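Q: Structure tokens for this one, please.
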Amino acid sequence: MNSRKASFGLVLLIVSGVAGCKLVKIADEKASSSSGTMFADNTARLDSQAAAMWQPKVLPYMREKAVDLSALRSALSAGFEAGAKKFGYRAAANGAPWNFAVRFSGKIVEADTRSRAATISIDTDGDGKADATVALGPVILSTSLRDVLPFVRFGDYKNQIAFAGISKALNSYAYDHVLKEFPRQSIVGRQVEGIGATSLSSAGSTVTIVPVELKERSP
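A: Here is the predicted structure, written as tokens:
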């Protein structure tokens, strides 16, 4: 009799353990599914925000604030802080890069279009050397486009992940609607012009531009 009770108790223990494992697995799967859905929803929401602000806010602001790249270089060389305060914007405290809306034109002297983080290097002053890099994407790692816009503020987003997400959304919109159709083959030697955002920490910083407008122009 005692042997039967012991066997019955062992069966119950095994069944309970198996059932418990199944419950935990189901709960984990639900949590994982919920997390994935939330991430997708957040991404879609940020993409929607970027699209909604592009025509009424982003383009008008960039066109209004864009300073000719050569003029910006001259001002920053004469005195970086003074030039940056005159032409740039930064929301963070001292030490963060300054962000600028720039208008640029020049000759393509180098092109890296095989990479997903494709770029062109342009000569803007006619000396035959590259002095600015223009992002073509689809992968754009810079946050300059987000950071140059005073109406895109960190405090308006839930956390750093969401703030990084709106930067990615803006870059993605720029690629889909501005850069995707830009030629990728045999473009060295062609002339381009556009408007974009760049971030600089000093007068000698490398100029990397995220365009909101980019097109070929006649020589």
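A few notes: The chain has a mean pLDDT of 85. The first strand starts at residue 67 and ends at 68.
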